[in-house]
Specification:
The protein is built from three helices and eight strands. By secondary structure, the chain is α+β, with helices and mostly antiparallel strands. The chain folds into two domains: 61 residues, no CATH class; 61 residues, DNA Binding (I), subunit A (Orthogonal Bundle).
Length: 146
């Protein structure tokens, strides 16, 4: 017989006032938000609930809660562009040929030509495609076609 995980090891998904998913928090934090009235239970039909007991209260803690306070229009912080996150976004695959070997980051519009180090200008590329692209840009620069 397998031992059940302790209730306090579970996590709860938190939604904003306008039902955007915000985070996954531990059940203790969820209890505080529910008891203080800063959040309410959400029931999506098949939602799990955990029963948490104290000497004077029995609380049903759902798998999903919605904040009742805070700014309804959350300003999302865009994560910084870094190698690990770009590789993850691009499924560890070269965006030019589909290879999964010898991956590097490539600026679609080179930084030397005014390209930004941003999510929509950086892709995963294998060394071969990145090198080929560099050579092609150098050729075009000599011909002034770029």
């Amino acid at each position: 017989m397998q031992a059940q995980p302790h209730i306090l090891q579970n996590s709860v998904v938190v939604f904003s006032k306008n039902y955007l998913p915000l985070a996954r928090i531990n059940i203790k934090r969820a209890i505080v938000l529910l008891v203080t009235g800063q959040a309410e239970s959400l029931n999506f039909g098949t939602t799990k609930q955990w029963e948490v007991r104290s000497p004077s209260v029995v609380l049903q803690v759902p798998e999903h809660i919605r904040l009742t306070v805070g700014n309804p229009e959350r300003h999302w912080k865009v994560p910084p562009v870094n190698r690990r996150e770009v590789l993850k976004r691009d499924s560890y695959t070269c965006q030019y040929c589909g290879s999964t070997k010898h991956l590097t980051l490539d600026h679609v519009i080179p930084r030397s030509k005014g390209g930004q180090h941003s999510w929509d200008n950086v892709v995963t590329a294998c060394e071969k495609c990145n090198s080929t692209k560099s050579e092609a840009i150098a050729y075009l620069m000599k011909r002034e076609w770029y």
